[in-house]
Design goal:
Blueprint lengths: L1 H12 L3 E12 L2 E13 L2 E8 L11 E8 L5 E7 L9 H8 L5 E7 L23 E3 L2 E4 L18 E5 L4 E4 L14 E7 L4 E4 L12 E5 L11 E4 L4 E4 L6 E8 L11 E11 L12 E6 L1 H9 L5 E8 L10 E5 L3 E5 L2 E2 L1 H4 L4 H4 L4 E6 L5 E7 L18 H12 L3 E7 L5 E3 L2 E4 L2 E2 L2 E2 L4 E7 L36 E6 L7 E6 L5 E8 L6 E5 L5 E6 L10 E9 L7 E6 L8 E5 L11 E5 L4 E5 L5 E5 L17 E4 L3 E6 L6 E5 L15 E2 L5 E2 L6 E3 L2 E7 L6 E6 L12 E6 L12 E7 L9 E6 L2 E8 L11 E4 L5 E4 L10 E2 L2 E3 L5 E4 L6 E9 L2 E10 L7 E7 L5 E6 L7 E6 L6 E5 L6 E2 L19 E3 L5 E2 L7 E7 L2 E7 L1
Antiparallel strand pairs: 1-2, 2-3, 3-4, 4-24, 5-30, 6-26, 6-30, 7-8, 9-10, 9-20, 11-12, 11-19, 13-18, 14-15, 16-17, 16-18, 17-19, 21-22, 21-25, 23-24, 23-25, 26-27, 28-29, 31-32, 32-35, 33-34, 33-36, 36-64, 36-65, 37-63, 38-39, 39-40, 40-41, 42-43, 43-44, 45-46, 46-47, 48-49, 49-50, 50-51, ...
Amino acid sequence: MLKHFFFSTMLMTAGALPLAAGTETWTVGKDTWDVETTTAELCPGVKYTLVNWITNRSTARPGSRMHVIEADLTNPKISVENVKIDAMTGNRTLTNHAKAVHKADHQVVAGANANFWITSPETGNYACMGTQPHGICISNGIMYTDHTPGYWAHCGGPVTNTGILAFDQDGKCYLDYTKVQKANNDEGSGVQFAAINPRIGHRMNLTMCNRFVDAGQASIFTRQYGTDKKFRVGDLSGPVGTWTPTMGNHGYIEILLDYAEGVTAMNTGGVTDYVIKEMRFNPEEVGSLGNHDLAIVGRNTYATVPNENWKVGDLIKIDTKLNFVSMGSPEKITNATSGNVLAMKNGEILPLTTHVSQSYNTSLNARTVYGTNVEGTKFWIITCEHNVTDQTTKAKKYQGFSLEQLCIMGRDKFGVENATQVDCGGSAQMYANGGQVAASYDASGKRAVYNGMFVMYNDSDVTIPAPGSNDNEPEPAPDPDKDWTDSGERAHFAYDLATVADAKIPTVTYRLTGNVKAVDIILTNRTIDTDVITIEGGVNEGLNSVYVNDERLTPGATYDWTVKVHSLPVSGTSHFFHDATEKLDSRGGVGVVTDPESKAYGKIITSMGYAQGFGLYSPSLEKEGTYHNEMAPWQASNRSSNYRLAMRDRSIAYACDFSDKGAGYWKFDPESPETTPDNLAGGVNDGTGCFKMEGSDDCVGSGASGIGFQGTGDNTRLWVFAEDWPTGNSAYKGILARWDIGTADKVTRGVNAAYGDLAGNKLFANQNVCITGTPDGIFAAQHRGAGQNTTSCPGFIYTDINGDILFNSGNFPALFNSCGGSVAISDDLSMFAVAGRSENIKVFSVKWEENVPTFTYVADVNDTKHVTEVSQLAFDPAGNLYAWQRSTSADHAGLFGYSWKNDNPVATTPAKSEYGIVAQQFSGIDDIATDNANAAPAFYTIQGVRVDASQLTPGLYIKVTGNKTEKVVIK
């Protein structure tokens, strides 16, 4: 009793409103018990009831406890969400699931474990499943696992076993059997899980999503399965029998598809349009999804029939419609799960609930049951506890219930009419009002679960306790970013260097990207390189002017000059800039103009998928504009149109395009941003992304995931990871190719070299490659998950122009654990950065010996691991790093600027040769000419550094008013 009142007090002080409390006598079958119930309102539309047993049901376990959540789905502010990690695998506690989605206007009220048990790792009886949950799992419209029509009873079976719990886009709840299956999963089936080719009227039934492909089946794999993970294909003998990975020898096919134009996500519970991009029939080895949105993998007739009748470019409709026996057919499913058995229907306890062979259901145990009324307007979560170890006394506290008992109590005491069990045993847990109210414990603490079904309150007019505020939840695993704080600092550089025309005293001007510690103006005699003079420069952000008036200069000599900037120390990792894209989840690229001869020196350029064009930012990070948005033939429905970019001669950007229609390498000149981008690829796109000149079969251009330039002028080489060489969607699945283009504005002939070992069917199995050039070679990087950086499929390589690999990151797995798809190297080749895959960006210093790099770790760019993809990285003249990040979150998507700890950042910018200074006879302060003019005065130190008139301190200054120059003393 004391424990009960303590718990109730916790709820009340956390903002829950007490509604009723008292003792009752409950009769369940042959048992009669005295119980105490306490009910509280957690928020408008959601009630929580705690039931404590006064009657001791067991000497060994002197108590019983049950928790009930009731949600009114007619309340427009109430919704139900299946919350999980955004990956096929991975568990966390209910509280940590709740923390991931709780916001001021989308508050987590209560929830419990969802999908039925997780299968074992990829060994043993369930090797075919691979640590995935049984049953359907749909989270926020994304299908992670399927309804497996007619396959395994506990994996979503069609009509007699589990049923499905689903929520549609209007918030209605469905808990029911699906209708009887028809041949080919035809329309009207309980599960219309099929691929349809309208061109030939062919409907092919599908069996599973993101699981495996058995003999005589076809299944689908989405991006959630993993883009570089090989499809799981094999023979299964018996429902939980021997699993043998094999493609078989009676036909095997991999059909790769992208969303059709205008489609950005699967319409789960309806029909979604895709377009076939590639078909691989009887390949040498099992492939992966790569840069596509969906794969259909078939065996036997499910391979031979589409191979003979389908073709690249066909529209394919994926039908995922659900038809329930008595609750109708949702138009779109947003969240769904299923357990091991549909236990109660219309108030009637169903046979498997009490079947003697189903000891899992008849034993006294901890359980979680979900329930609804017939109309689907109310939703219940019921969890009972069993064998929970008291963390203080180590005593066993509670006696559980059979599934039948739990259903009867739900029906008779709370009004539940339909019910399904989602787990029995240690994973049966409940969260409410800021903490876990029912939990089991493993060695590491509260048990982690695959996902949770949570009741949400979608408004901020009431405050619900934040996840963890009423919980002694243990901290998650140590996070390398835990103590990181954003310094907000960066290194700076000078730009817009010039001289003042017709000045009586030679004057140089420059701009700084920020306030700095010191500036040196270094003057070097053009004819006597040992004649080097350094004078002090201005240190303020923006425009600075400096007199070049020093007695050490040789009169009449011409001096070239550079501005050396000493920035203030950068105290730690800094996210000093962010600009999100209008369309989230878009791929893209980033480059920086680092040629000091360019008027655009220091500007940042981005290319943006979904045909969002080019972005241009000044060195001071002001956005100058977005150019050529939705320009034809770029594809507004394709996240890779445009994609990564490369800087030619360090000054002009060319962006590649991974779509077939927008394929090529599109020029963007930051000095003339309004000029319509031209395609570097000559010839004509044949419709597959392959460009050919008239009368020639040579491929002169291709759809590409990455491009890079090497060399300058006549020695310029173009490197491409070409998807469509030598023909569209070629068997290479992308290949590293080189064109020696020199100064040409168009590529009009075939490749100078294509490297067969550096292709998508060999070393670059990810088929999505970023290229970064150096004077003597190129880096090529691909996505590799943690621990998957191997010599046969490395995160990145460095190769010379002959295709000889001089560095393979797979030889250094401890240094490069993963790769997020991009690397960058500074212009002086001294700094290197690599994006991590679900890991931070890492920065290295580089030393070179005979064109072979050696890397030394410098720093992690903290808190950069929470994105889908880091498409491209680029250094600016001060050594800061820019990243293009793909994410569905505006907080993590778009262009980011990063810096890291550096006690003495230094950056040097040379002036153009046309701005050489001709030294004059040194003029003392008293010798400066005085010409009168009517203008606002400017003040300089005696060293020639301009000072703001409002910031003058006592001392001697040069005052310039128009053409009048005089010495003044400020007191």
